[in-house]
């Protein structure tokens, strides 16, 4: 009963997720569902959406000032990028005043949300103007949704960024953390992207709707585990993620971690025999095989954990790899 009460918001959020169509959904509503569950249903969607609409209106004003077509996808993405690159003037029709709006900035403090999990939330970013590699690209997608622009989320180790097509159908890579267009070569310079990752399209590829749905549902799962740990309900969510996208890295990594814990417990219980002697202990040996199989899946996806220090060094190398491209 205590669990039922404390986890009520997550139960409701999971039911809401199951009502969304994985092939066609509002990214704004999905992200709000994730963050609202963590806040125990205390977020206000109207305020959340209003903040997004104001940013979308600012993009329209930017494009109008530069005489760009509001129906052109490249122009729309150009306008959204400006929100990450420079100060922009916003004219408030109600007050008839013009305000200077600062660009979104990267928040280097606790960027993985280890001390404060909400550091990774878009609701926090809309309020403070600062985000990180999880919130900043999702925020971009939600503004694009308001404008009817096409853009996609793409992943790298411990990182995500935006991709969109220009007028010549060239795929552009936009790094939201500092507002630069970057080359695929720079994205691969982290040293943590291998051939398996490229072959399986784990990294540097556009996420389709189902993959994005699964990625957002994995955010719901991680938030739940941050609060309550791993249990049957977490496993329910994990299974749903794999049902939608069997190659989701988060769901598969969690599976490998859980099976590792089980294997270690069973191996320790029989006296920690050597690997070659494990077949003499059927239950422990089967747990060991299950663990190995889970890691084979993760390895096949090309996942490699990227240490915090390596990630920061890679991100800072952006300043040396700026790509000024004409839209």
- General shape: globular
Distance between the termini: 57 Å
- Mean pLDDT figure: 90
State Rg.
22 Å
Write down how many β-strands occur, each being a DSSP E stretch of 2 or more residues: 8
The biggest beta sheet is recorded as: 4 strands, antiparallel
Tally of alpha and pi helices:
14
H/E topology pattern: HHHHHEEEHEHEEEEHHHHHHH
Poorly predicted segments: 321-327
The percent range for helix content is 40-55%
- What amount of the residues lies in strands? 5-15%
Structural class: alpha+beta
Strand order within the widest sheet? 5-6-7-8
How would you portray this structure in words?
With 327 residues, the chain is of the alpha+beta class. The protein has a domain at 20-193. It has 14 helices and eight strands. It has helices at residues 2-6, 8-19, 27-38, 45-65, 73-85, 122-128, 135-147, 184-188, 195-199, 209-228, 232-244, 249-269, 282-301, 308-316, and strands spanning 88-92, 97-101, 105-106, 130-131, 152-156, 159-165, 171-175, 180-182. The strands form three sheets. It has a four-stranded antiparallel beta sheet with strand order 5-6-7-8. A two-stranded antiparallel sheet has the order 1-2. Strand 3 (105-106), helix 6 (122-128) and strand 4 form a beta-alpha-beta unit. Helix 2 runs antiparallel to helix 3 and helix 3 runs parallel beside helix 10 (209-228).
């Amino acid at each position: 009963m205590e669990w039922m009460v404390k986890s009520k918001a997550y139960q409701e959020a999971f039911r809401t997720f199951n009502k969304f169509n994985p092939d066609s959904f509002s990214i704004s509503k999905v992200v709000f569902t994730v963050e609202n569950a963590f806040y125990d249903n205390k977020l206000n969607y109207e305020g959340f959406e209003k903040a997004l609409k104001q940013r979308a209106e600012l993009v329209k004003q930017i494009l109008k000032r530069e005489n760009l077509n509001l129906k052109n996808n490249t122009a729309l993405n150009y306008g959204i990028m400006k929100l990450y690159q420079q100060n922009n003037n916003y004219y408030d029709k109600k007050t008839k005043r013009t305000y200077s709006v600062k660009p979104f900035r990267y928040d280097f403090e606790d960027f993985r949300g280890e001390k404060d999990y909400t550091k990774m939330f878009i609701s926090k970013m809309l309020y403070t103007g600062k985000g990180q590699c999880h919130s900043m690209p999702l925020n971009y997608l939600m503004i694009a949704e308001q404008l009817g622009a096409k853009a996609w989320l793409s992943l790298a180790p411990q990182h995500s960024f935006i991709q969109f097509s220009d007028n010549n159908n060239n795929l552009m890579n936009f790094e939201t953390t500092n507002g630069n267009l970057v080359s695929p070569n720079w994205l691969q310079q982290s040293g943590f992207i291998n051939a398996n990752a490229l072959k399986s399209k784990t990294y540097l590829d556009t996420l389709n709707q189902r993959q994005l749905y699964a990625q957002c549902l994995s955010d719901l799962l991680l938030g739940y585990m941050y609060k309550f740990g791993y249990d049957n309900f977490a496993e329910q969510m994990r299974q749903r993620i794999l049902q939608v996208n069997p190659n989701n890295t988060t769901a598969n990594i969690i599976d490998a971690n859980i099976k590792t814990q089980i294997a270690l417990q069973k191996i320790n219980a029989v006296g920690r025999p050597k690997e070659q002697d494990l077949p003499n202990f059927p239950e422990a040996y089967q747990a060991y095989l299950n663990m190995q199989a889970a890691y084979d899946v993760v390895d096949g996806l090309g996942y490699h954990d990227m240490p915090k220090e390596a990630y920061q060094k890679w991100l800072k190398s952006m300043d040396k790899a700026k790509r000024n491209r004409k839209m």
